[in-house]
Write a structure and sequence with these properties.
The chain is an alpha/beta fold and about 325 residues long. It has two domains: about 5-220, Rossmann fold (3-Layer(aba) Sandwich); about 225-300, Alpha-Beta Plaits (2-Layer Sandwich). The chain is about 35% helix and about 30% strand. The protein has a six-stranded mixed sheet with strand order 6-7-8-3-9-10, with helices on both faces. The chain has a four-stranded antiparallel sheet with strand order 2-1-4-5, covered by helices on one side. A four-stranded antiparallel sheet has the order 12-13-11-14, with helices on one face. Helix 3 crosses helix 4, helix 3 packs parallel to helix 5 (about 135-150) and helix 4 (about 110-120) crosses helix 5 (about 135-150). The longest helix has 15 residues, at about 165-180. The two termini are about 35 Å apart. About 35% of the residues are buried.
């Protein structure tokens, strides 16, 4: 089961919310669709799920054109929008039965379909409670259950942990990881930790355009710049300028400078050429100068750093 997006564009008046984007997602992938508020994430999700018509371009789900085969496509997709569409005066089982009927689950299979998602989403203890009585975490689980009651091959989740407490977030993330092993799963979010905890591929959208696509590790490799190293030395009576010059003389080191001085230690920051590893040479230099090295660490560019780099000029809409 795949999702293929080709030159997808959406205009609101003269304003392009999504601009000529293309990508493909295959079964077994958990793909994080990451972007700042107003970047076009939800608009793209709504077009993929046929809830919103595109202005230009094509979307194919399992080879089906979403414009020409919208009803068939919807049967293959489970969708949890950012605003969870729940009926608070219904109990969990009745709501899931209602959702199953809307999704045209055969009458003889509805009970087993409900039991499957109740078990999968951990809803057994609240199955007979009204949804309005449930915590936000359980409501999100009910939303996930309704998205899966017809056993779709594609799951699209828009901000699935929004408003949850830390424990609820952990539980929902575990469930997403479990589901991702057998479904094509797209997770739309602006939360970096969400992507790092659950996704094996990341699409970053900014101002309606795809600006990055790859695994978290490959994106870190691609956007990694200079190697940045911090080292903490015992202060004693050391010549800061002499140490700066000594560190700067090491092959591949481009810059060395004092970063911080306190009562007992002095911290230096070293910048080296991309792809180099100068830590061993730094250690040798420190030893030959009879200095006491207390700490040395290499700074890593996080996914959040990359996100900020790619979206730093974005304006909140």
């Amino acid at each position: 089961m795949s999702i293929r997006v080709e030159n997808l564009t959406k205009y609101y008046g003269q304003q392009a919310a999504v601009k000529d984007i293309s990508f493909e997602i295959n079964t077994g992938q958990i793909v994080g669709f990451l972007g700042p508020n107003g970047a076009g994430k939800s608009t793209t999700m709504k077009m993929i799920t046929t809830y919103l018509a595109q202005s230009e371009g094509k979307v194919f789900v399992d080879g089906l054109d979403t414009e020409e085969k919208a009803i068939e496509v919807r049967k293959k997709i489970g969708y949890l929008p950012e605003q969870n569409p729940l009926y608070l005066d219904m109990n969990v089982i009745d709501y899931l039965r209602f959702a199953a009927e809307l999704e045209s689950v055969p009458k003889g299979e509805i009970n087993s379909a409900i039991e499957r998602v109740v078990d999968l989403c951990g809803l057994d203890e609240v199955r007979h409670k009204d949804i309005g009585e449930l915590s936000k975490g359980f409501r999100q689980r009910v939303g996930l259950a309704q998205a899966m009651v017809h056993n779709p091959e594609v799951l699209i989740l828009d901000e699935p942990t929004s408003g949850l407490d830390p424990n609820q977030i952990i539980e929902i993330r575990k469930l997403i990881k479990k589901l991702g092993k057998e479904k094509t799963l797209v997770l739309s979010t602006h939360i970096m930790q969400e992507v790092e905890a659950t996704c094996d591929r990341v699409l970053i959208i900014n101002k309606g355009e795809i600006v990055a696509d790859g695994s978290p590790d490959s994106l870190q490799d691609k956007f990694r710049g200079q190697v940045e190293i911090n080292l903490v030395l015992k202060k004693d009576s050391i010549d800061k300028d002499l140490i700066e010059r000594a560190l700067a003389s090491i092959s591949n080191v481009e810059r060395a400078k004092v970063q911080k001085v306190d009562d007992t230690t002095i911290t230096f920051h070293v910048s080296a050429k991309k792809g180099s590893d100068v830590r061993e040479e730094i250690f040798r230099k420190i030893v030959t100068m009879n200095l006491v090295l207390l700490e040395m660490n290499k700074e890593e560019k996080s996914l959040e750093d990359i996100f900020r780099q790619l979206t730093k000029h974005s304006e909140k809409k």
